[in-house]
Specification:
- By secondary structure, this protein is mainly α.
- It has three helices and no strands.
- The chain has helices at 5-18, 28-41, 48-80.
- The mean pLDDT is 74.
């Protein structure tokens, strides 16, 4: 297999994904433009799911840090023998 055939194979594979029955009426010109845009933009598109996941982890980490701090305070209260009396 020649090294130059790999990009060509990727192009045909990518066009197969786009050429569905729903998009069969696009026409050759529009189909060509879509393929060019797809391969031109694919490395410039930000993966928002990765960004959202990192933000979720930070929020969860903050919650667990606060819970750990509260647990540490509870241990100190238990060790000192203080008794909490409710009115």
């Amino acid at each position: 297999m020649q090294a130059s055939s790999v990009p060509c194979e990727r192009l045909f594979s990518g066009s197969k994904q786009m050429a569905t029955e729903r998009r069969a009426r696009l026409g050759a010109k529009v189909f060509e433009e879509l393929q060019i845009m797809k391969f031109r933009w694919r490395n410039n598109i930000t993966d928002l799911s990765v960004l959202n996941s990192s933000q979720i982890e930070e929020v969860n980490l903050t919650e667990f840090t606060e819970m750990l701090h509260q647990d540490e305070q509870d241990v100190v209260w238990d060790q000192d023998g203080f008794e909490i009396v409710a009115d």
